[in-house]
User: What shape does this take?
Amino acid sequence: MSLINSGLDSAIAIAERRAGKFGAEFFTGRPQAMIERALMALRSSTWIIVASGFVEPVFYLMAFGLGLGKMIGNVAGIVDGSGNPVSYAAYIAPALLATSAMNGAIYDSTWNVFFKMHFGKLYQGILSTSMGTLDVALGEIGWALLRGLSYAIGFTGVITLIGGITGDHMIRSWWGVLAIFAAVLIAFGFASFGMAITSYLKSFQQMNWINFFLLPMFLFSGTFYPLSVYPEWVQSVIQALPLWQAIQLVRGLTLGNIDLALLGHALYFVVMIVGGLLFTTRRLRKLFLR
Assistant: This one.
């Protein structure tokens, strides 16, 4: 009983501190509670799912970058910031890093959120406490960011190690360190947008449309070959896709090709983040706080 009373006292104190403040109905300043819950779930049951998201891009790199890459050699027309030709492994490695950040964020903010929303009924219970919809959105997205960050650090370590062993360095510039932070930005954008979309989906059949969209985006967004192989009108369509923006951002940093275009790619994800948070907050409020 003492724990329950302590929890009630804490919830009341939080509500009283936020009362009358701007956005009090949406935010209580406790999104970390969602992250704490996710960490407990990770220790008990979800660690295999999280680990699989890291292994997948490593397998792609080994199969395509190191295997097929030996037959391809350097990628025609692609150079790093020093004007040196770029090997196939160095070309696809940043694309796989961006894709890994996207996948970790998307699966956490779509399937994970879908189950909690429609089967676990988790959000209904959380929003009956002092926590608000923005707490839930930021907490879930924050967990997706931690997952994206762990993938980025792990994958960067792997390609650095492989580059040291093979002599084919896949990070060609000190700017490549920023690729880790770029991966977090990418994860933030996909997570906030993914959660917003998931709030409108009501069945597993509808959820399958997410995979239907992700797979071709992964294959055709310049992951494995340059966009120059496509007709110009197809290139324009692909350049509007978020994964292409992500790959160009990370690839520019790892190869040391620094220009103003990288800022444009980063701003693309800032817009995704803001739009996703706004839609998610309003949608959760409409669903659970009528």
